[in-house]
Every structure is written in structure tokens, then in C-alpha cells.
Write a structure and sequence with these properties.
The complex is a heterodimer. Chain A is of the alpha/beta class. Chain A has two domains: 141 residues, 3-Layer(aba) Sandwich (Rossmann fold), CATH 3.40.50.10950; 134 residues, Isopropylmalate Dehydrogenase, CATH 3.40.718.10. Chain A has eleven helices and eleven strands. The relative contact order of chain A is 0.16. The two termini of chain B are 20 Å apart. Chain B folds into two domains: 147 residues, Rossmann fold (3-Layer(aba) Sandwich); 148 residues, Isopropylmalate Dehydrogenase. The mean pLDDT of chain B is 93. The chains are: A alpha/beta, B alpha/beta. At the A-B interface, helix 5, helix 8, helix 9 and helix 10 of A face helix 8 and helix 9 of B.
Chain lengths: 304, 306
Amino acid sequence: MLRSFRDILDAAKEGDAKKVAAPCAEKKDMDLLSKAAGSGLIIPCLVGDGKAIEGMLKGMPLASLEHEIMDEKDPDKALGRSVRLIREGRADMLMQGTVDHQVLMDAVMDARNGLRRGKLTSYISVFQLPKPEKLILVTDTFINNSPTLAEKQLILEHALRLADILGIDAPKVAALAAVEQINLNIPSTLDAAILSKMSERKQFGKAIVEGPLDIDCALSEAAAARKGLRSVVTGNVDIYLVPEIDTGHLLAEALVFFGKLETAGAIMGMTNPVILNIPFVSDENRIVEIAIAALMCKKGEDHA
Amino acid sequence: MIRSLDDFARIAREKGPKKLAVLAPEDEEFMLAVKTSWHKGYIEPVLIGNTEKMKRVAEKVEFDIDGFEKIVGDDRQAIADLGLSMLFSGKLEIVSKGQIPTSYIYRSIIREENRASSGMTVSVVSFWEVPGLDHLVAFTDTGVSIKPDMKTKAEILKNALFVYRLLGYPKPRVAVLSGQREIGGALASYRDFDVLRKAAAAGDFGECEILDATSFTEIFLGDRDRPIDYARMNLERMPHILLVPCLDTGNILCKLDFFLDVTRCSLVATSRGPVCIPARSDTSDNIVEQLAMCVVVTDRMKGEVQ
């Protein structure tokens, strides 16, 4: 079981380096790629204006490390070419680089030429808790605005797959809502209750889903006990499933800014990992996102 | 200016005791909070509930309740109705929830506000005390409106501004929160931000400032596109009021005090006085802080007409 970002980096370094297609990378991305290549995690495949890339590489450690340059002068075509590299099996993962979020998402979600694998994609934030050292997952924090119950099931299944990749056995899931009691007027409590019942019937394997849980019950066994709620999940949550994006995005940010927690993450539901530029992920932790992507590649087709 | 929960405690000692209806104090944690608040001189409790249960928990926390006014009641809704009618008729100054579902309290408040024709929307304000920050941070609405529309959010904001101004801040700074990102189109919460900001600029909410920021990244770092850098993080940019998109978000964010190094205190400001609504998971120490806050708010509400 991986307990820290250090564990993730160490585990990802075992095995072959993965090839990263990086369209329109700028200096900041080159620094990251340089660091990741230097750690033996990846072999960058830089797609863009060849001369400009060579100019940027001068004096960078990456210049002396294994890398490829694909000359594509038109920035609009660099992304398409990068995606094609992956579809053709010539690269393992895609990095956002300077490509606009929506442009990137449109390209990778394209049904014919993109990297979409299933019905839904989701983004999972991975946080490193310091004491006791532990990784927790919060989802969805970036992609789905108002997921339906069926979509929440897929989001949860994505999280369970990532938990498996991180070695979290029988993950404990808090299906969050505003209150811990089922309230017919609060849809999140109904969705959480149904997912919890599905878990009871072993529809999520060994995972234990408890819901609805309010955040106090999820975070504190004692607080849950004061409300008469006893469960192995309370106070010991591995995965927090949020009701919708307002909550997910703001919760992830609150954990970063108020909790000073380190965070990285992964997009799920693609044929190959895609590394997004998430605003609340620090430059230092972007290498962890590459490492998670590398672990997903190792998992093969079951990664997403 | 009230900058901390200690300020509430200090002023509550000066301005108390205030007459407080305690609705079904039938739980040790809550009775202990009543005991402590009485000893500190914050409150003069009127105990409404099942006499046997109240006596039993009082004995457990070694609190002699013989000298206090007691009103017998078993039906939870009837207890809530009685407490709120006493507040609205001026017989007492604060109401506090004990072992009663919060929804019953809200129902009673709404009924009394309708009777009083106050036109007031019921909402909950939850304050955070954040170490290193020189003011309290108010999240709203963290308890009542499940998915408020823009009009309701405007009323919720007015309530929070009213409460925050009572703390001595004539022009509170507000952030209308949203999960808006660069993808996924415009969220309803973001459209609400846009409308509310224009309304504030037109003077609809009196003296206040709505920030051009809807996320913590934008609040603390100033823009959405830069990765986080704690060195650049400026805690002083934290606004006074955070208007949350919906109940799920509000409740989940404000109760992060179970994980973060912050302290939370919540109240409902009705048109006739505050209602203390501790969560069932709150400890007695936390409930005492919330009662102190209500004592100060009721004191400052005297003479104010919302």
C-alpha cells in the first residue's frame, strides 16, 4: 500500500520509462519533463516547433537525456499529432502543456479521434495526509458538473480503480452529503444511500461505501458516534465521493489552502493517462501526477 | 470590532446574562454547555423538555437545575414552536437547540417570521476562526436552503451582511463561491456571482464589496491559471463572508473544522434574535462558544431593525 507521494514516485520508477507526448511545452513544462526524465520516469516526446524546442532545451538537463522532438510548426496541429501518437501506440501518456483546458478536453473526448474510453471521464484529487501518513482520494473535483446517480457510480468505480493502483485494499468510501440522514428533499442523500446499499450487496467488490455521510461523521469517528452512527468508514475514509462540482472543486481547494495538504491527481476514463494543469496542484507535485500516470500505464488496460 | 471568538466570550461576560430558551437539553454534552455558560454569566436558562430526562442529564454533569424555570414538553415540534414563540413575543432573547432535529427549529422560525410578516429568509451563518487571520470568516447559508436560486441567495447575503455588520464591520468583503473552472460551461453558481456582483455595485446590499473571485485559488493567489505557491498566498485576502453555492457545499466546507485548525460557531439570525443551532456532533466547549456569540449578537441587535 502506497502511503505518500514519495511511495508513489518510488513505485513509478520501477520498470520502463513511459513515453510522454507533450504538445506546445513551455519552459515550465520543460523543467517538469526534465525532472521526470532525470528520475527515469519518462521519455519526453516534444511536439511543436522543432527549432524553438531545441532552443529551449539548450542548457537544460533534458538536452542530455533521452527525448524525441516532433517538428510541428502549427500549434493547432501539435495537440492532434500528440493524440495520434498515443492512439498509434507510439506514446503512453499525454501532457497538457500550454494547450487551453477546453481545447484539450475537446480533443481527448472526441469520439472518433480522441482518447475517450468509456461513457464518462472524471478527475480524482489525491491528497497526502501527514499524520498518520496516508493517501486519500476526493472525486470528482474537476470534470463533472452535476453527475447523475449513474454517473456517480462510474465516478466511484474510477476511484476504486485508482485506489487499487495505489494499493489501497478494501477502500472505505464516504458518499458525502449535507446531512447524514436520508432527506427526500436533498438529492445527494438519496444518491449516497443508494450507492451505500449497492456496496452492502457487494456491487463494488471489497469496497465499503457509507452514505449519506456529512463531513463531520466522515472525518471523525467520535462525531459520528455522538450522532449514533457507527461504521468502519467514519474517521477512516480512503475515498470521499462529493455530490457535485461546486462542492468537489471548493473542497479540494479548501484542503490545499486551509489544510496545507499536498495534492496531485489523475483523470480517469481515458485509454491512456492525460496529465492536466489543475490550478490548485503545485509545480512541485506535478511530477507526482506523472508518477501516478506511469503507475496507471503499468496497470495496462484496467487502469481506467 | 469583533475579531475572534475570545472577543465574543469577553463581551458575553459583560453583557450577560441573557434569557435563553433551551429546547430539549436532554443530552450530557449540551447540558454541560448550559451549565458552563450559566457559570460564566452568559445566560439565564429556561429549560423546555422532558423533565425526567433533563434532570437525569443534569445530575450526570453535576448541574443543579432546581432554581431554573422549566416548561414540560415531550413533542419535539411543540417544544420548538414554544421556544420560538417566546422569542418572537419578547419573553426571552435567545433560543438554543438541544435534542431536537434542526428542521423542526427552522419550521418554527419560518412560521414565526411569517406571523410577524418580517419577509425574512431563514438562513444559517457559520463563523470560522482561522489562526493568523485578524477577522472571523462567515460561511452562509450552511443550513437551510438546499439549492437557493439567485433571489434567495440575495436574501441570504443580506442576512449575513446584517450579522457581520453587528460585529463592527460597516463594509464587509464578500466572495460568492463557485466551482467554476475553465471547462464545463458556466455553472449556475457562477451566473449567480455575476448577477449578485452587479447588484452589489448598484447598491442593492448597502455598503459591501463583492470580490471578483469565486474560488479559493482566485481569492488567495489572484488568478485561476497559476499553480499554487504558498509563498504568494496572502491570508489577508480572505473575505469576511463566503456565500456558498448550495447546502451540500456549505455544510461540507464549514464543518471542515473537524479536520482543519479552525473553530466553527453557527447561528440563525431571526428578525427577533439569534437562534443557536449546534450540530449534534459538537462538543460542549464548542456549544459554549456558540452561546457566547448569540449573547453578543442579541445584545447588538437591540435597537437594530433589519
